[in-house]
Amino acid sequence: MSNLYPTIGLEIHAELLTKSKVFCTCSAEFGGEPNSRCCPVCSGMPGTLPVLNHTAVEYIIRAGYVTNCEISRFTKWDRKNYFYPDLPKAYQISQMPRPVCLNGYVDINVNGTEKRIRVNRIHLEEDAGKLVHDEATRSSLADYNRCGIPLIEMVTEPDFHSAEEVVAYVEKIKLLYKYAGICDCKMEQGSLRCDVNISLAPKDAKELGTRAELKNLNSTKAITRAIEYEIYRQSEIIESGGRVLQETRRFSDTTGETSALRSKEDAHDYRYFPDPDIPPIIFTEEELAAIKEALPEMPEQRKERYMSQYGMNATDADNIISDKDICDFYEAAIKAYDKPKTVANFILGEFMRRINLGEMSMDSLKFTPEDLARLIELGDTDKINKNNYKTIFVEMINSGEKPDAVCDRLDLWVKDDTSAVEAVIDKLIADNPKPAEQYRAGEQKVFGFFMGQANKALKGQATPNTIKAILEKKLKG
Amino acid sequence: MDTKNITVAGLRRMLDSKEISAKEAAGEFLADIKNKDDKVLSFITVTEERAMQDAQAAQKLIDAGEAKPLTGIPLAIKDNLCTDGIRTTCSSKMLGDFVPPYNATAVEKLMAQDYTLLGKVSMDEFAMGGSTQTSAFAKTKNPYNTDCVPGGSSGGSAAAVSAGFCTAALGSDTGGSIRQPSSFCGVTGLKPTYGRVSRYGLVAFASSLDQIGPIARTAEDCGIILNAIAGADPKDATSKNVPFTDFNEKLGTGVSGMKIAIPKEFYGDAVDEEVRNAVMNAAHEYEKMGAKLVDCSISTLRYAVQAYYLISSAEAASNLSRYDGIKYGLRGEGHSFDEMIRDSRNRGFGDEVKRRILLGNYALSSGYYDAYYRKALALKQKMIEEYNAVFEQADVILTPTAPTVAYKIGAQDNDPVKMYTADICTVTVNIAGLPAINTTCGYDKNGMPIGMSIVGKRFDEATIINTADAFEKTFSPVRCTL
Q1: Omega before B153 within 30 of 0, i.e. cis
Q2: Chain A: nearest CA to B182, how far in angstroms?
Q3: Which terminus of chain A has a smaller tally of CB atoms within 10 A, N or C?
Q4: What domain range is A321 assigned to?
Q5: A44 close to A7: Cβ distance less than 8 angstroms
Q6: pLDDT tens digits, residue range A140-152?
Q7: CA dist., res. B394 & res. B388, Å (int)
Q8: A269 — contact with chain B (CB < 8 Å)?
């Protein structure tokens, strides 16, 4: 085993959730018919001018606050010049010397160990379009819908030394950005993208090795595989006496390998200069304070609240906050039914179990938080037998049918008809004289057998309390 | 109607008193264009049908007594201002068939007054040049002597006004492109303060310097047009919200007590003696009217041309990168993106445009940025400070507009540096973002017009319009004999 030690830095691009694009009024929504969401400004028509979307600026400042950055009081935009068919102006409006956010940090937890990762900077820029290559006609087509979608680029210091740390960081950033309401962080749709810079050197070396840049990794799995492959590739080269080249590499999901895209010598000279069309911004303390004040509740704050107000333990609170969609669902459910602990138990149990089994997904839920709240309330108030939760919940998952409607259809309502319960129990005892005898002889555990049988026979139409009371009376009878 | 002398204000009176109809007015200009523009070559596109429609719509408003200052006034538009549905070429093969689906804000504002569009006029390719000889479509000639250049880049606008093909025109000015052709063609041209007129829809040359303005026969007409096109625009973040009521509000108040600064650097040997004398005569005329002449210095003038060409070419190189043949305009051929883009740009751009792109990209290259572009920006700061100091002791500044009168076509073709140096008198105004107006102050021994420039404080167009107007009232212009 070699003593080579990987050092890794990250660049994370995140598309902001603004309604319109960063320099024009086109919709910034994902997808759409090709070129249906572009205008003379974002398609770079002659004479058109960019006008900055101030919501995008507010969002990047939020990104800065949630990653403990300093916010620059003075910020400006620059042009990054290069030719490519998906870049209609042939320059990208970006920020070079004066980014909005500087010098932050984010704490991650890897296998129980806390670690601090330093954030070098975050800047605001515009996304480019997309090229679609059509093999049949051997042509390339440009789709400008994505042109001008606001993008923030975060650059970390080279503080990572394993794929695990990198993945923990990416997951943490996804969580922070989602709670801050600035990005939906859908890696598969490209709204969050990672570039990884990685080099190897002996552990006690004073200088870092030559780095390779791995572009556009679109899942945490791809990040892990690409880093692991790259560690393997670079150590092979170094150990056989070779030299790692400084280059940009692409990762293939199919082969699990990285391959060279371009070398340092081919690197562009982007000829950055201040964009004369966009006046610099000077923030006042009041403006920054107002943005900080308006920050949505962040995961740590929610956890704190769940523990102090709802009496949740740390593990349960962590589990609920770790997925913002689930956490928001929970918040909405307890608005409809104010029993935080009961609702949390359902979410942490049956709800998450079904998600983990792949039987439902937060992206395509057919029922509402109010529906779930209603289901739990029905059980709590003895309108239904809690043993029927699962039956009803599965119907809600599959068809979105309201819990009341499911109970109507499957006749699951608790009926306060004691004579019917008594008849069923009488028959049970008559059919099972031996266990009844045992119970009377003091064998308490057979009581469970009778409870189960009675429940089954009554299909939940009586509450456990009713059944228990009648059973006890009759058995002792 | 005397098409060479009729002013916007004069035609307004004729239209409102029904002395002439909007259609008749448009018809007379169109007839002159048809009969005589083959000698001047000022128009790239004549919009005859559109002009008649505009005139008809305008007439209804005039008849209803709802005419605005420009209703039914026939104007020409420089071909770098986007006109919805009408070809906008920038005098470049690159945009030879480009029809924008939007209007420049300035054009939009003229339309809001129901003006009459006569057509699109020629210019140097992408506004780069001072002769209109780099146009790919119409190498405009000077109406006073068709062997001479009309100046540029708004040479089509100035020549069309001078020859009587329109009452006035819009031009654009990045380093003198309104004032210098106005000087060469014996007309009045106003470059407003940077930020006064929206640049939206003006095909960008150098974004931090470009400004749209009027070319007309009088300062008063420039004021009328500026009233229409000025104002902050949500589509242009560099436009400024500086309120105004009427840029002609000072007309008739004279220049008595006004302080006029004479910066000595503008009157050196680089400027022809005949030009210097004509401008100094005008200065003394102002003295007679009660103004006081103040000596002053703009020492940064010696670096002005260099700074101007660095800033403007750097911005131009970036602004013109979008012409790659992919989305619109001329498309070249090739087996890859790179080849196709290269071929498009090689065939679409003329030599002068290529020269500026090379210069600009060089100045922005890594390792050269600090030596060139950053220094140019530093000089800009210094220049602004110098002008501010002058304006603490004077109301306006008086300079020649160009070192010479209009020169012979071809005379400077092989010497770009000499051609660039000829911009010495105009570029500082753009770098400092100031307003300036050119008006004719005399004629040389061959009868070619000599222009002078009155430079004002930021957003004080009203004062320079009044100053130019005061001189015009004492001066009898000699129109071209075309």
Answers
A1: yes
A2: 24
A3: N
A4: 297-410
A5: no
A6: 899 999 999 999 9
A7: 10
A8: yes
Q: Are residues A95 and A168 in the same domain?
A: yes
Q: Cα dist. B428→A145, A308, B309 in Å?
A: 41, 67, 11
Q: What is the domain-level CATH number for residue B413?
A: 3.90.1300.10
How many domains does one find in chain B?
1
Does residue A1 surpass a pLDDT of 70? Answer: no
> Which of A89, A271, A277 is facing B322, going by the closest CB pair?
A89
Residue A292 within any structural domain of the chain: no
Instruction: Identify whether residues A183 and A204 lie together within a single domain.
Output: yes
Looking at residue A203, its pLDDT comes to 85
H helices of A25-162, in order, are 54-66
**Which residue in B4, B21, B42, B78 is the catalytic one?**
B78
Q: Say if residues A148 and A21 touch (Cβ distance below 8 Å).
A: yes
Q: Flag whether residue A129 sits within 8 Å of chain B, measured between CB atoms.
A: no
- State the Cα–Cα distance between residues A232 and A6, nearest whole angstrom: 10
- Indicate whether A291 belongs to any domain: no
User: Which ipTM score applies to this complex?
Assistant: 0.96
Confidence of residue A389 (pLDDT cuts 50, 70, 90): very high
3-class SS of residue A63: helix
Of A410, A431, A454, the last residue of a domain is: A410
Q: Model's pTM, two decimal places?
A: 0.91
Nearest to A46 among B82, B238, B324 (CB): B82
Which of A282, A309, A340 lies at the terminal end of a domain, its last residue? A282
Asked whether the beta carbons of residue A46 and residue B366 sit closer than 8 angstroms, the reply is no
Per-residue pLDDT reduced to its tens digit, A260-304: 988 877 778 999 999 999 999 999 999 999 999 999 999 999 999
